[in-house]
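Bit of a strange request maybe. I'm writing a small parser for structure token strings and I need a real example to test against, not something I typed by hand. Could someone generate the tokens for this chain?
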Amino acid sequence: MIEILSPAGRVGVRPVEPAPGPGVLTGRRIAVLDNGKPHAGFVMAAIARLLAERAGASLAVEAVKTSAALPMEPDVAERLRGAADVVLTGSADCGSCTSWSVHDTVELERLGLPTVLLATRAFADLAREVCALHGLPRARVMTVRGPLGGSPDSELIAMAEEGAEQALRLWTET
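Reply from user aminoacidic:
Good idea to test on real output. This should exercise your parser:
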């Protein structure tokens, strides 16, 4: 007897609707949840600073996970919920970090925090597919060219510029 397993993952995952976006970022608090991958925090903090300057928002908190290969710690989730109106998380630029960044994105959306996931082009489709498998098919996934690790500061700043416009659109459009 041969058992055939579906590659689609868990069946019957509880659907997650994205938390309502704020409409405008003026006066909103932006948090960054960095998974610790090289340069991810640099790019996300640059995006948050650009949005704060352009849209009248503020950078509320920057949290760094203990490992890209683990979910965010419960105390980090609570800290973000108390300190932020929107969250920028990531990065989805390798296999395990994509999976856990998606997990964190889904959990933050469940907490009512509109969350944008930073993904590089090579991993954006995977991030969207894993989001759908976790019940969040309409996840806010922002794509930058990548790679993050090993890129010079000038490239990282260019990626932040690309990402800032996308993040603004993802949080403010319905």
